[in-house]
């Protein structure tokens, strides 16, 4: 009888605790990442990653290496894939530590460098960030997104797809000197 009561109490306790716990949720619904041309050999990427670890990549321009500026056709085109669990966990941590609600990018679109655009959908909101020189707080996130773009295990897509542009700016559109 005592064992039965303890068992019932144990199950009720476990049920109540289990009901109050929320399942681990990604800190974003979707992340979109764009890079622009530069006056050099910058790759041009358009990436979308969702909370189900699914990614779409349109690699518009990629080079063989830092010395050879000719395009690498094996790295150009539309690709799809799934992010590895470890990479996704790192991405979640980078988004969390970024401080989505407070981080600000100065809209610097001058000079010679690749413009980086990040659009994060989270908690029913859309955060748009763009700068040629993002704050240090974003370095880890940008590095991870860039690494995802450069991975070699993606499958070439059978058809084209759209990735939200976020008003991607080309080198010819940049302002010089920058407005302050």
Task: Tell me what you see in this structure.
This protein has 180 residues and is of the alpha+beta class. The chain has three helices and seven strands; from the N terminus they run αββββαββαβ. It has helices at residues 2-20, 85-98, 139-150; strands at residues 30-35, 44-50, 54-61, 77-82, 116-122, 125-131, 155-156. The protein has a seven-stranded antiparallel β-sheet, with helices on one face. A hairpin with a 2-residue loop joins strand 5 and strand 6 (125-131). The chain is globular, with a radius of gyration of 21 Å. The termini are far apart.
Q: Give the biggest sheet.
A: 7 strands, antiparallel
Low-confidence stretches: 11-23, 168-180
Number of helices: 3
C-alpha Rg (nearest Å): 21 Å
Mean pLDDT: 78
Strand content: 15-25%
Helix and strand run: HEEEEHEEHE
Task: Count the E strands.
Answer: 7
End-to-end Cα distance: 78 Å
Estimate the global geometry from the Cα principal axes. globular
Strand arrangement across the biggest beta sheet = 6-5-1-2-3-4-7
Q: How much helical structure, as a percent, in the residues? A: 25-40%
- Label the structural class: alpha+beta
